[in-house]
Amino acid sequence: MNIEEIMQYILKCGADVLGAALEQVVILVVMIERGLIPWWAIPMVTAAIAYFICPLDALPDPIFVDDAGVLAGVIAALGGAVTAAVREEATRRVRQMMGL
């Protein structure tokens, strides 16, 4: 599964996802593409994205509370590695995906 397929799946999840959770996923994708993920965080980032995509979930997917919490936790753990430039790129991509 490539990044484009992952993004297409996320877009199909519905309007609830196309908010903060989607932007958090895109932040992680941008960081992966730029090689900004520290070695110790690679398993954590991979698991968070997989958990977001996985249909088997702790809470039913229309809620997305648990997914957003996992993503927010990973981004918080990355701390200063998430730069303003990464956030701006993620925001730009999310807007482009949404046709804004």
Structural features, described:
The chain contains five helices and no strands. Helices cover 65% and strands 0% of the residues. Helix 2 (20-34) runs parallel beside helix 4 (65-78), helix 2 crosses helix 5 (84-97) and helix 3 (42-53) runs antiparallel to helix 4. The mean pLDDT is 81. The longest helix is centred in the first third of the chain and has 15 residues, at 20-34. It has one domain. The protein has helices at residues 3-12, 20-34, 42-53, 65-78, 84-97. It is mainly α and 100 residues long.
Chart the SSEs and their pairings.
Layout: H1 3-12, H2 20-34, H3 42-53, H4 65-78, H5 84-97
Compact description:
This protein has helices at residues 3-12, 20-34, 42-53, 65-78, 84-97. It has 100 residues and is mostly helical.
Task: Please tag this protein with its features.
100 residues, mainly alpha, 5 helices, 0% strand, globular
Q: Radius of gyration over alpha carbons? A: 13 Å
Unreliable parts? none
Q: What structural class do the secondary elements suggest?
A: mainly alpha
The domain tally reads: 1
Mean pLDDT: 81
Q: How would a crystallographer describe the biggest sheet?
A: none
- What percent strand? under 5%
Question: How much helix is in the residues?
Answer: 55-70%
Order of helices and strands: HHHHH
- What is the oligomeric state here? single chain
Number of strands: 0
Number of helices: 5
How far apart the termini lie comes to 26 Å
Shape: globular
